[in-house]
Design a protein that fits this description.
about 75% helix; mainly alpha; globular; two-stranded antiparallel ribbon; about 350 residues; single chain
Length: about 350
């Protein structure tokens, strides 16, 4: 088989596999969050648990990435790029570190713990639209009319997904569902903005170095942030050695946890490496280099779609009919826009290559 044809087949499969791995995140993260101290005072306790878990994940990410890059490239090659940074570069690095890396995960974990994890994941998929909004203001890009059409459709989709939780919050005067939705949107804002600011930095920094810088910057930000949230105590550090029942499923309407007991640090390590961090990231970019961007964009749907089934089977979180309709509208509109944009980019690159050949 021609290697190029093989790449066209296996590249999107690898991208799908990387995104599918992320869908098994919630069955471990959710029990971990609910083994945190004082969890029954959810709106107050969940931010503290989220900030502490995010800090430990960043620490583990640095332990994995830093030795690898130092051995492979050397200290001078990894950090010498800072000499070329201007003011705009430093602002971009601060945003993707404190915002995209630290606060993005922080708000996403709060959303995951306070509300329906599937709703949190679906709303987070509005990220490509937020990226384009940032690009309009930061990179001065001019979107076509279809962007605004898709934006309206996506807002309708998000509204339908969020409607049941908002309605319950208003009726019961317990606003955890509403807070979860807002936190998921904030996570999408930080992650979407990081894509734009990251695009600025990729002109000077390769992706692996940039990922390391994100982890280091996010870690130091979180060190201070956890002082503010008062998590440096034996109660929270004790979370790392607690036994936690992970995964489970529903039998005849009753949730039955599996007999899998992990200690807290293993749960965080699982998320940091296998589902939310290094491994799916490496697989994603490995597959992306062997896929057309337009096809890879569609392959990324493996994450939200599989999450719907995984979260229902392992956690018992389902979707109402109106939320399913909203999810279809949101995912279809965002994926269509991503596909068209990627297709146009590929055509532009092809034209540039042909022009280079003619010179």
């Amino acid at each position: 088989m021609d290697s190029r044809k093989g790449d066209k087949i296996y590249g999107p499969i690898i991208v799908s596999a990387a995104n599918a791995a992320r869908s098994f995140d919630a069955p471990v993260r959710y029990p971990l969050l609910f083994n945190s101290p004082d969890v029954f005072v959810k709106p107050l306790a969940m931010p503290r648990a989220s900030s502490f878990i995010t800090l430990i994940e960043h620490f583990l990410g640095i332990l994995i990435l830093l030795p690898f890059l130092l051995i492979k490239r050397g200290k001078k090659q990894v950090f010498s790029v800072f000499k070329e940074f201007d003011k705009r570069d430093w602002i971009s690095l601060i945003f993707i570190s404190a915002g995209g890396s630290a606060l993005g995960l922080f708000f996403f974990l709060i959303s995951l713990g306070l509300g329906n994890p599937t709703v949190a994941i679906l709303i987070q998929k509005s990220q490509p639209l937020i990226t384009l909004i940032f690009a309009i203001f930061i990179l001065k890009e001019k979107p076509s009319l279809r962007f605004y059409v898709v934006l309206i459709l996506a807002v309708i989709g998000i509204g339908l997904i969020a409607l049941p939780d908002i309605s319950d919050s208003v009726q019961t005067f317990e606003y955890t569902g509403l807070i979860a939705i807002l936190c998921s949107l904030l996570a999408a804002v930080f992650w979407g903005g990081s894509t734009v600011f990251g695009r600025i930095l990729t002109k000077k920094v390769d992706y692996w170095n940039l990922t390391l810088f994100r982890y280091i910057g996010g870690f130091f930000f979180l060190l201070v942030f956890n002082i503010i949230t008062f998590t440096y105590n034996s109660t929270y550090f004790g979370l790392l050695t607690q036994k936690i029942n992970v995964f489970g499923h529903y039998v005849d309407g009753a949730f039955v946890p599996l007999d899998w007991q992990w200690i807290g640090i293993l749960c965080i390590l699982y998320a940091a490496i296998l589902t939310g961090g290094v491994l799916p990231l490496a697989l994603y970019y490995f597959g992306l280099t062997r896929s057309k961007a337009s096809v890879a964009g569609l392959a990324e749907l493996a994450f939200p779609i599989l999450s719907i089934f995984v979260n229902y089977y392992f956690l018992g979180f389902g979707l109402e009919t109106i939320q399913i309709i909203g999810a279809v509208i949101l995912l279809t509109s965002v994926s269509t826009l991503s596909y068209i944009n990627a297709k146009e980019f590929e055509q532009e690159q092809q034209i540039l290559q042909e022009q280079e050949k003619m010179k």
